[in-house]
């Protein structure tokens, strides 16, 4: 089969002919119908993260059709439309068995530690396959598995309740999902903070109150809108020290700030005025859980989460075209969400 693979760190991906993967008793073979190109893939190609092995097929946002079943598989059948949860966990270790599989002792990520979806076929444990309803195109199903799923997990970690207010710092794919999902979970007001006009406009189309951080201090703006109270929940999805601090500062009493964006820089916190005095919480959120995905897919099927505008371009399984898109992501030159359709 055709597969676009990372051969060496820092080098362009290459098209390779490799055998169709064999499956174990609890695995499925999936004919890939869509594989999202994600910002993380640019990091992997650049060599900023240790890969499971090389050469390796990238791609962790995958949807397709079940082609073949292992002997013990009962949750899906041949011909089923599925999307794939990208973290392969054991299901048996302490963390898996206590419902926190993101900390599995042997967690492996698709397209990072094992071969991913930039290929014609992929094999996965059958438990990672989520049914994809006919109403959701494969391209949208693939992208649900990354940014949208991470947004849902972050909001669940934030314990958003009906009647609360939420501020989302950063209106990318994750932020736009977070805005819609926060409303679905009962938030009555969602503030969208960004500096790009088109992003802020899109956020308002999804019912958020735009806060232009390029024009003034977003914390003051949020306080003004909430009559000085601040928000119940703030999500930081960019990964900048400045916006992390702003997210914490925008909280009201008992507020919860969730850190989702990756940032290697430390931030300074006054534990009295910013945390203890307000009984505020700073919460970390990393990835998402298999158990959250059926709900997410159902929200997309019911159009509570709109997926119609996520994918901006579809390309074939072509190494040059994929490398070009990864260059765009690496250099922030072209803000498009591209999906490979092999
Ligand atoms: Zn991704
Ligand atoms: Zn485990």
Small-molecule binders: zinc ion
- Content-based structural category: alpha/beta
Q: Average pLDDT value?
A: 96
Helix share, percent: 25-40%
The low-pLDDT segments are none
Q: Which series of helices and strands comes N to C?
A: EEEHEEEEHEEEHEHEHEHEHEHEHEHE
Number of strands: 18
Classify the beta-strand content into a percent band.
25-35%
Shape: globular
Spatial separation of the terminal alpha carbons: 11 Å
Largest sheet: 7 strands, mixed
Q: What is the number of helical segments per DSSP (H or I, 4+ residues)? A: 10
Our Rg estimate from Cα atoms comes to: 20 Å
Provide an overview of this structure.
By secondary structure, the chain is α/β, with parallel strands linked by helices. 29% of the residues lie in helices and 25% in strands. It has helices at 39-46, 94-97, 138-158, 173-184, 197-205, 218-225, 241-249, 271-275, 293-301, 319-331, and strands at 2-6, 14-17, 27-36, 56-57, 61-69, 81-84, 87-88, 108-109, 121-125, 129-131, 165-169, 189-194, 209-212, 231-236, 251-259, 281-284, 313-315, 338-340. Helix 10 links the parallel strand 17 (313-315) and strand 18 (338-340). Helix 3 packs across helix 9 (293-301). The chain is globular. The N and C termini lie close together (11 Å). The model has no long low-confidence stretch (mean pLDDT 96). Bound molecules: zinc ion (2 copies).
């Amino acid at each position: 089969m055709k597969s676009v693979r990372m051969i060496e760190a820092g080098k362009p991906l290459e098209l390779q002919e490799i055998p169709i993967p064999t499956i174990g008793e609890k695995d499925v073979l999936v004919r890939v119908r869509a594989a999202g190109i994600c910002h993380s893939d640019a990091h992997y190609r650049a060599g900023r993260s240790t890969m499971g092995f090389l050469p390796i097929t990238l791609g962790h946002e995958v949807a397709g059709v079940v082609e073949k079943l292992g002997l013990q598989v009962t949750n899906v059948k041949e011909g089923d439309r599925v999307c794939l949860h990208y973290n392969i966990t054991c299901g048996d270790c302490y963390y898996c068995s206590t419902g926190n599989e993101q900390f599995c002792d042997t967690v492996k990520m698709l397209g990072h530690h094992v071969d991913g979806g930039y290929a014609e076929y992929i094999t996965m444990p059958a438990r990672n396959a989520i049914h994809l309803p006919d109403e959701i195109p494969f391209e949208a199903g693939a992208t649900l598995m990354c940014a949208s799923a991470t947004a849902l997990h972050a909001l669940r970690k934030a314990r958003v309740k009906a009647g609360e207010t939420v501020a989302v710092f950063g209106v990318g794919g994750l932020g736009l999902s977070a805005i819609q999902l926060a409303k679905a979970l009962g938030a009555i007001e969602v503030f969208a903070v960004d500096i790009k006009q088109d992003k802020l406009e899109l956020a308002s189309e999804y019912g958020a109150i735009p806060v232009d951080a390029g024009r003034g201090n977003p914390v003051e703006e949020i306080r003004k809108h909430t009559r000085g109270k601040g928000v119940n929940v703030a999500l930081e999805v960019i990964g900048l020290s400045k916006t992390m601090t702003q997210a914490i500062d925008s909280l009201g009493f008992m507020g919860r700030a969730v850190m989702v964006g990756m940032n290697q820089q430390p931030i300074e916190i006054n534990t009295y005025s910013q945390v203890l005095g307000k009984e505020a919480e700073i919460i970390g959120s990393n990835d998402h859980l298999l158990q959250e995905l059926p709900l997410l897919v159902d929200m997309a099927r019911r159009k509570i989460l709109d997926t119609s505008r996520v994918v901006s371009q579809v390309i074939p399984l072509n190494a040059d075209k994929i490398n070009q898109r990864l260059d765009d992501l690496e250099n922030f030159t072209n803000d498009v969400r591209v999906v490979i359709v092999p």
